[in-house]
Amino acid sequence: MTCRICLSSTHVLLDMGESPPANSLKEAANQPEDFYPLVLERCNTCANVQLRDCIAPEKLYSRYLYMTPDSPSLTQHYAFLAGELTDRAVLRSGSLVVEIGSNTGKFLRHLQPFVRKVVGIDPAANICEVANQSGIETICDFFNDTSAEVLKERFGRPALIVARHCFAHNPDPHEMLRGVTRLLDGDGYFVVENAYLLNTVENNEFDQIYHEHMFYYSIRSMQALLAQHGMHIVDVLMVPVHGGSIVFLIKKIAPGDQLGAAVEEGARREDHALTPETFNRFVANTLEIRRRLREKVSDLLGTRQRIYTYGATAKGNTLLNFVGISAAEIPFCVDSTPAKHGRYLPKSNIKVISEEEGLASPPDYFLLTAWNYRDEIIAKVRRRGNVRSKFIVPIPSVSVL
Ligand SMILES: [Zn+2]
């Protein structure tokens, strides 16, 4: 098909079949679902890795159940980022900060003490309501050229625009960047945090591949995209959230811009590491995890062991549906988000229950679908007096703890 960054031709890396959107939890197990192809492909010219087929954002995000969880590791990460941005003088006492896809405003709350004003923009009405009620002013809209103009009229030009784990959630990054260049102050920063392709591939994180993730960014592909909009990466940070993410610090190209050494070093590392052999190995490892997890679940059920999954996450649903695990084998999924309780996971039909319910009569094994919170979840289960249940960790390879 066609690369949505540079319009060259692409080739398929991995075809994961058809599945429903990974965040679309159901009210009832028999509720009808729409299935869409999930095909990962790579550009033959510009290093872009993308989904071949995109679902319209209106369909994915207008009513969204994902609310940023309260997690010690995320809180730590927010404080780290706020510190980095303050040290680099990106955050200043007189400035305005706009966050795209700000969800319930948890990150903006961390920036609030350092700046004049923070504003969020998010397309999910139910989530904007929560944010506004908690005192983080949030506009309910998609971010694009039009809404950027509205924000500029109403609040002025921000010195910082943030897009954490949402920049790849849109089929047309050019439209978002037109909005960013229109809104951002001349020497302002655009900070994008995203899952990092190199981590995804090297850690076999095929569960990152779902319909919301329409792009899998690297330094090289981000450079190819930004160059078309008169912007460039001035620095990058590698951070541990969501299984290994990258933070791009981006500015409009101006004479005298200093580029951090990490940008060129990282890009050169990608040139060596992201070869066709690497992608072939990623695909082979993905298929091996599917085979071993299938085998593990069948073996345990064969000896009458009970298994629940832990984490009603998008990545968890990708994993379950790709491996082919359903409610007939694993009846319950434990999750800490009240809005998800009593609902059913897409395709697999596994029922979501609360942690209290899940731990009241715990299973022999938890399949850690939210493996990126592994240590936090295991500590939480043990703290509640459960020392018996074991944990199946699927990624980077199937293991039991
Ligand atoms: Zn391309």
Mind sketching the topology for me?
Layout: E1 10-19, E2 36-43, E3 49-51, H1 57-61, H2 72-87, E4 96-100, H3 106-111, E5 117-122, H4 125-133, E6 138-140, H5 145-155, E7 160-164, H6 173-183, E8 189-195, H7 197-202, H8 219-227, E9 231-239, E10 245-252, H9 261-273, H10 276-302, E11 307-310, H11 314-323, E12 332-334, E13 351-353, H12 355-360, E14 365-368, H13 374-383, E15 390-393, E16 399-400
Parallel strand pairs: 4-5, 4-7, 5-6, 7-8, 11-12, 11-14, 12-13, 14-15
Antiparallel strand pairs: 1-2, 2-3, 8-10, 9-10, 15-16
Helix pairs in contact: 5-6
The chain binds zinc ion (ZN).
Task: Give an account of the 3D structure.
The chain is an alpha/beta fold. 35% of the residues lie in helices and 21% in strands. The strands form three sheets. It has a seven-stranded mixed beta sheet. Strands 13-12-11-14-15-16 form a six-stranded mixed beta sheet. The longest helix is centred in the last third of the chain and has 27 residues, at 276-302. The two termini are 42 Å apart. The structure holds zinc ion (ZN). Residues 3, 5-6, 8, 43, 45-46, 48 line the site of zinc ion.
Shape type? globular
How does the helix and strand content classify structurally? alpha/beta
In angstroms, what is the radius of gyration? 21 Å
Q: How much of the sequence is in beta strands?
A: 15-25%
Order of helices and strands: EEEHHEHEHEHEHEHHEEHHEHEEHEHEE
In short:
The protein is of the alpha/beta class. The chain has helices at residues 57-61, 72-87, 106-111, 125-133, 145-155, 173-183, 197-202, 219-227, 261-273, 276-302, 314-323, 355-360, 374-383, and strands spanning 10-19, 36-43, 49-51, 96-100, 117-122, 138-140, 160-164, 189-195, 231-239, 245-252, 307-310, 332-334, 351-353, 365-368, 390-393, 399-400.
